[in-house]
Amino acid sequence: MQIKIQPMGPYQTNCYIATTNDMDFIIDPGVNATSWVMKNCKNPVAILNTHGHFDHVWSNAELQKKLGIPLYTPRQDAFILKKDPFNQGTPPSIPDFEVKEDSTLEIKGVKIKFHHFPGHTPGCSVIEIGQSWFSGDFLFSGSIGRWDFPYSSGKDMLSSLHKVSKMSGDFKIYPGHGGHSTLKAELKNIPYWITQVKRTI
What we know:
- The chain is α/β, with parallel strands linked by helices.
- Helices cover about 25% and strands about 30% of the residues.
- The strands form three sheets. Strands 1-2-3-4-5-6 form a six-stranded mixed sheet, covered by helices on one side. A six-stranded mixed sheet has the order 7-8-9-10-13-14. A two-stranded antiparallel ribbon has the order 11-12.
- The longest helix is centred in the last third of the chain and has 12 residues, at about 155-165.
């Protein structure tokens, strides 16, 4: 699989194009992502959201219209896309598919797993394609997503950290912000973050 990365917008949110079997999957098209995506996609087949925050979904609707491809979003975050509850001025978008928790999909013959890790948002998910994890704002290199926003939950984040601590595999992690990592590397940090989250709930 080939992966193109471009940080977008004021928070430098990573937009990804994951190409496998000559098909392009667009992951988290944030602020002003459309031009870059259009220039770098030859055969786009789907838009995938890790969660609903504005800096990850800003260009959803524009790309849906221009490319004529479906949008897949974790179902518990669909309301964020539709109603802009933080009043960021985010262009509203409507998922073609609201993905259920911990679902495995097959899109054009490609298996895609949405691992549900709520806490940062109700629907926050890691998208697994092959040996790659697109972790959105759940796991970063050396850190985790915030759990103090509206609709965030420290209790859910704690459960998600315990859940991921029991997982394994030779996965490369591509987060929503910053550089890449590996699941093996980040698992070493999970006990620390469990302690930090516990202090806040």
